[in-house]
Amino acid sequence: MVYTRKNVSTLTPSERRRFVAALIELKRRGEYDEYVRMHMQYSVPDGEGGLRAAHMTPSFLPWHRRLLLDMEGALRRVDESVSLPYWDWTRDRTSTAVPWTEDLLGGTGRRSDRQVMTGPFAYQHGQWTIKEGVTDAEYLMRDLSRSRNPIALPTARELKTTLADPVYDTPPWNSTSAKGFRNKLEGWGQGSGAVSWRNHNRVHRWVGGHMATGASVNDPVFWMHHAFVDLVWSRWQLMHRGARYLPAKPPGPGDAQRGRIVARHEKMPPWGVTPEELEDHSTVYRYV
User: Fold this and answer.
1) Least CB-packed of 97, 123, 188, 220 within 10 Å?
2) CA 119, CA 138: separation in Å to the nearest integer?
3) Tell me: the pLDDT tens digits for 17-54?
4) What residue segments make up the domains of the chain, in order of their start?
């Protein structure tokens, strides 16, 4: 049976409670931290050797689609009524809007150490201890909109420009690809600092704290953010019918990207599924 993913701003009070409770139960069981470790393991940047599966690569979108499906399956084993909501950051654009409410994710971190002090994921409640991270801090951290050097979330107009690109991805298939929908959505731009962060990347930086690191999964907003990124991919597919995941075939001998990216029919670790198998989600879930 096909289930739905809703805009987080439309969730009922009961749906909010159930979603939060399922997340906390996965954390209690130790399952949640497995997803943190997985994301950290497969977030290989351009500058390192080996296969890039999760970021700076064409498989950015199908890899995260499968990660979301795994997480959603775990949540639904706890409570079959739960699915992943998406956060449309082109509409809910302030640090006090949904999902930054007391009954959902809580708000920003305090100024001194960025520790989240409100909502169900605040460390003081004893239900959300960070065990896998890039620092020794056991508490969830955020710095919504970057208090010391503010930035804004991506706009609907910026996203529209991204959606207009009719080609999925282009050589060199990494963070320097100037054309192609994938990198425009993932958000690796030219220059340094805020001007180089677009769309997906800019949202991670806007949230700050754990979301600005490879351990971003520690913040439950990760799932809402990537559900919206996944929705954007779905919209792009509808706008450009017939457009497919690229590259269709692996780079040839002598190509610097040979063995570093996943082609359409190649298997993505750690699941052994191909990007092609994840291009169509219509038999599993839909967005409303």
Assistant:
1) 97
2) 16
3) 999 999 999 999 999 999 999 999 999 999 899 999 99
4) 3-287
